[in-house]
Amino acid sequence: MEKYWELAIALIAAVGGWQFVKYVLNINANRRISAAEAYREEYKALIEDYRRVQGEVDKLNALVDDLYKRVHALESERLDLIRENNELKLQLKEAEKHICLQPDDKCIRRLNDNVKCRLVGLLRGAYTEDHPDAILTEKDMKNGVTENGKDNGIPEKPDTGKQS
Hints:
Elements: H1 2-15, H2 18-25, H3 27-97, H4 118-124, H5 126-130, H6 138-142
């Protein structure tokens, strides 16, 4: 039996001595340590993947935000163009409503938005308000003319003022 003990001790010494005994006694603890190290490595790999994916998601979110800004800018520009188009249509309708029927070469002058043509203003009597002595009708032309048809420079209505 001593031979078996000697053989066992020689075998243990050949395999690694005391370290082999510690390994055999701590085999369960070594399994737990190696499992924990494997779990830690997997966890690190997952964290790296998560950070990489999170970075990509952040880039995509920034791109989406930029696209939304561009879409809102285009919508705003579209609404401005629609508004401008409607204003131009309204101005066209107003211009069609207040059109001067005189040809361009016969229209004396276009005044403001309400009076498009001086001839229209003359017909409405706007010119005579500022110039009461203006000759516009045949009656106006006959004022101040004598019987023989010549202008004597004396108005038909005598001045009733007193002379001193």
